[in-house]
Each structure stands twice: as structure tokens, then as C-alpha cells.
Amino acid sequence: MHKPVGLQEPHFKADPVFTSATYAQRYEILCRRLVLERHYDAACLALSTNATPTGVSHPSGDLAFTRFVRELQATATRFLET
């Protein structure tokens, strides 16, 4: 999850930003792009471990669960007011 991984491009060229990126970094980029391109109102990225007990982390503040919930509440409030 935290080690850079290679790209296989058999059908099309991948975005250069993904070159030498970890899976976690790729998901972070995906979540941010979905919000920035207004496909989603908000996104949350939670990473977990295989350890016992499982550890959960949010690698960046803008994709943290608390921010996601605040945006979800604001969207629901706007919806109910219309």
C-alpha cells in the first residue's frame, strides 16, 4: 500500500502523475479529482492495516471522515431546504 508500484499500459497511456505512486497515493489523487471535477460533493479515504487490532488512518485532512460527514450534512440540509 505504501510502496511505489509500476504501471502496465497495454491499452492506453496512464496519467504521468501515477508513475512511481503508491496505491494509497493513487486513491488520494482519484478522490481529490472526483471532488475537484464535481463528480462528487465530497470524498473520504480511509486506509486500514492487516494487523490485529486493525489500524485505520486518514492520510490527508481534506479526505478525512469528519470533513466528509460535515459535507454530507451540508448537502442533506440543502436538499431538505429546497
Describe the 3D structure:
- There is one protein chain.
- By secondary structure, the protein is mainly α.
- The chain has one domain.
- It is 38% helix and 5% strand.
- The chain has 2 helices and 2 strands.
- It has helices at residues 23-36, 65-81; strands spanning 47-48, 56-57.
- Strands 1-2 form a two-stranded antiparallel ribbon.
- A hairpin with a 7-residue loop joins β1 (47-48) and β2.
- The protein is flat and about 50 Å long.
- The model has no long low-confidence stretch (mean pLDDT 90).
Features:
82 residues; mainly alpha; 2 helices; 38% helix; flat
Tell me the overall shape.
flat
- The oligomerization state is single chain
Q: Order of strands in the sheet with the most strands?
A: 1-2
Estimate percent helicity: 25-40%
Q: In angstroms, what separates the terminal alpha carbons?
A: 42 Å
Succession of helices and strands: HEEH
Percent of sequence in beta strands:
under 5%
Low-confidence stretches: none
